[in-house]
Hints:
It is built from 8 helices and 17 strands. It is of the alpha+beta class.
Amino acid sequence: xxxxxxxxxxxxxxxxxxxxxxxxxxxxxxxxxxxxxxxxxxxxxxxxxxxxxxxxxxxxxxxxxxxxxxxxxxxxxxxxxxxxxxxxxxxxxxxxxxxxxxxxxxxxxxxxxxxxxxxxxxxxxxxxxxxxxxxxxxxxxxxxxxxxxxxxxxxxxxxxxxxxxxxxxxxxxxxxxxxxxxxxxxxxxxxxxxxxxxxxxxxxxxxxxxxxxxxxxxxxxxxxxxxxxxxxxxxxxxxxxxxxxxxxxxxxxxxxxxxxxxxxxxxxxxxxxxxxxxxxxxxxxxxxxxxxxxxxxxxxx
Length: 301
C-alpha cells in the first residue's frame, strides 16, 4: 500500500522525502510500480494505473506535480484505478483535515474556490466538484500574488500640486468622471474594478458577492479622487446611462439600479463653462430644472 505524508519534514512517499520538481528516476524508486507515458501538447504525463497517481512534466522527465486520483476520469492518460493508499497531512487523514479546517485553505490562483493545504513549501491542492473531491495535486508551493503586474501605487491617491474642483454633489462628480476618465481619457489611471480588487490590500473584495450593491472602498475612492481644474473646460456634455463605465465599476451587477448616486443638485455645473448638454436618467427633478435654468440642454434618457 502506498503511503503519502505531507508534514513539516516535507512530502514523503512511503519512506522517502520528495522535493519538487522531481525526476522520474526518483519516483521510479519511491513508488516502485509500473507506469506508462502519454504526451500532450504541453505536458508529458506519467500514469501509475495501479496506484491511481499521475505525474505532470513540462520538461520530459522532470515532474512538477503529482495528481492523486480519487475519482475515475475518461481521459486516455487517466489512471485505471483510484488511489487506495494512505494520505496524511501532519499525521491526520488529509481529506478529513481539509474538510474540517476551512481556515487553512490557501488560494493558489485567481478564482480558486477550493484552496490547498500548504506545509514545508509544498502545496496539496484539492480538485472539488459539487462537494466531491476528485483529486489532490501535490507540488511546489508558489504563493498567489493577486497584485502581480499592478504598479504598487496605481490606485494610491496623492494630493495634487495644482487647483482642484470642489464638488458639492457626488452624483454630479461621477458623471464628470465618466466623461473625463472613460470617454475623453484625460483623468488617469482609468479605474478598473477587478484590477482594483486585486490591488487592494486591506481586505479581500469579493466582487461576485458584493457587486450587487455599492462597494464601500470603491465609492470612497471616487469620493477622494481629485479632479484638476485644468480639465474643466474639456467637459461639454454629460451622458448618463445604466451601462456607463463609472456605474459598472461602482456596482457591476446592480442592473442599472444606481439611484444611490442620483444627482441631487446641479450646483457643480458652475465649474464647467463649456457644459452645454446633459442626458439624464439618474437625477432629481430639481437637478434637471437647475440645468435647464443654466442654459444647459438637459433631456431625460
